[in-house]
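Appendix B. Chain record.
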Amino acid sequence: MLMLGSTYYPAKEVLNALFGEPQGGADFAINTIRLPRMLAGLFAGFALGLAGNTFQTMLRNPLANPDVLGITSGLSAAALFCILILQTSNTVVSIASVIAGLVTVILIYVLSKGKTFSVGRLILVGIGIQAMLSAVISYLLMVGAQEDIATALRWLSGSLNGSQMSALLPLIVTVLVCAPVVILLGKHLSLLELGEQAASSLGLNTDKTRMLLILASVCMIALATATTGPIAFVAFLSGPIAKRLVGVGYSNALPAGLVGMNLVLAADLIGQFAFVTRFPVGIITGLLGAPFLLYLLIRMNRKGSL
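Structure tokens predicted for this chain:
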């Protein structure tokens, strides 16, 4: 990815630029433009893939991911409010996104709580919350300053354009702290997949484990979304693809993160070079994810899972 762009640079020039040897225009293109873009894709993709797989496994349903449940919409609404209305710094946007993500999760859980826990009810409530928050996002775009609308729309599409090293630090630190927590809890995640009663009978503190997994996942999604915008369907696609790659009986937490990372980078390359017009990465992942969502809905409906 560091070699490709409007100008192609051989691997030797890329390595020289990375290790501080003056390369003229190559130094600026690689270190200032391409390296931050690649790191944004790496860490955001890994965070989205890992977090999406966590929700899908924990709730035992491939539809139970941040995009469908409305968590991503909650993050986006909070971030847009800070960007368009308050016009705050990136740090405030990140903090607001984390808080909004946690509030959205709590709201979905409270509204879906009945006599017994139901994943189907939780998904339906999440879809309703997503619709409501999408209306909030539309309203914010209507009342925002005209000169900020183009930036907001570009951010909403999910884009790696304009990534800067200084803005990536919160995302990198969050992933380095939260990802090991989720990966280490991977064996417990497989127990949660068996169901609440079965996991408890095997000695797992389900409430504590679920709280840690949700907190770590929401933090990663929030920082990824605040940095690159909501990149559609990466959290949704990564888990099922990783599960097919590693097979049954293995933890696919780490593979899901790696799949998410590769999905974002591959989609970014396709968006840049496969068409006459350059498209943001979120549009490409949306084109890939929408058909898979329809296929999954049809298959689950035939099995009676819906």
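Further analysis of this model is presented in Appendix C.
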